[in-house]
Amino acid sequence: MAGGIYHVVLRGNACEPIFFHEKDRNQLNHMLAEGLQRYQCRLHAFCWMTNHLHAAIQVSNQPLSGLMCWLGSRYARYINRSRSRTGHLFERRHRAELVADDEYLLNLVRYIHRNPVKAGLVADPAEYPWSSHRCYLGTETLSWVTTRAVLCCFSDSTVKARRQFLQFMTAGTDWTPTEKKQAPTHEGEVLRTDELAMTCLVRPTHRELVTRLDEIVKTYCESAGINATAVTGRGRQRDAARARSQICSRALLNGTATLGELANYFGRAPEVISRGIARYSGAGSPTRND
Predict the structure, then answer these.
(1) Is residue 241, in this structure, part of any structural domain at all?
(2) What residues make up the domain containing 262?
(3) Distances (CA, A) of 66 to 44, 79, 92, 111, 198
């Protein structure tokens, strides 16, 4: 589901370790950073345990399975080479559950970060180096971890949001993902992508959103030498369609607008916007010929 946030779990085969040394976790970090960029995904939280991993991943126009198959197979080959082993590293295909709302997302991030505490590895999540918890506290920076969506649920002020997030981490620690019914994931069911994925963000007013999108369109079109009216109008020129799709892809990826908001702005059905993004994904920005 484009724009959806998923709780992803990947376990070692027969509960065996998937990490053997510190360098293995570092290697997965590097691979994941590359994979997020390659598949245009965002990572909201993660925790690397010894025999399994947890992650909260938001997809764009490409399915989650693409990233996870690429990451899982590449990391498994790395482990098999480095340890001169053969066979399956992971027990089965990754498990992924769609995050239905902001309450679920907040509890999920807390659950992920508290995994090492629950396992008795540390007394405080901040003591564990292989999770995104320190990124939320501001004591560590990982360019491939996105904290804005969760922190904005607490406050517009980063300092205040981090303080309230830390307080939240100590409350309600018995929550588990199974306590909340999994959100519908099949096409045709009632929950829409934009309502699911963006509900936790502080949304701008309609006027603010239009102003932001106007500026994005203007900047893109000026750099590409394209008429902005052609991009926002009803025309179907190829260059304009490509520009429109790339603008939409970027707006979805950085959280500027939801799929529904982009559809309203450009006067097209959400399905048309989605198909355009898929068609022109990775096509690159057009450049001037002068």
Answers:
(1) yes
(2) 206-280
(3) 18, 20, 15, 25, 22
| Residues 192 and 211 grouped into a single domain | no
In a domain, 289, yes or no: no
Are 163 and 232 contained in the same domain? no
Q: Same structural domain for residues 39 and 140?
A: yes
* 40 touches 60 (CB < 8 A): yes
In a domain, 253, yes or no: yes
Per-residue pLDDT of the chain (290 residues; tens, 9 = 90+): 667 889 999 999 888 999 999 999 999 999 999 999 888 899 999 999 999 999 999 998 788 889 999 999 999 999 999 999 888 999 878 888 888 778 889 999 999 999 999 999 999 999 999 999 999 999 999 989 999 889 988 988 889 999 999 999 988 666 667 544 444 333 323 233 344 444 444 456 788 888 889 999 999 999 889 899 999 998 778 889 999 988 987 777 666 777 778 888 999 887 788 778 777 755 444 443 33
| CB-count burial class (<10 Å; 0-12, 13-18, 19+) for 76 | middle
Residues 272 and 173 in one domain: no
For residues 41 and 68, membership in a common domain is answered with yes
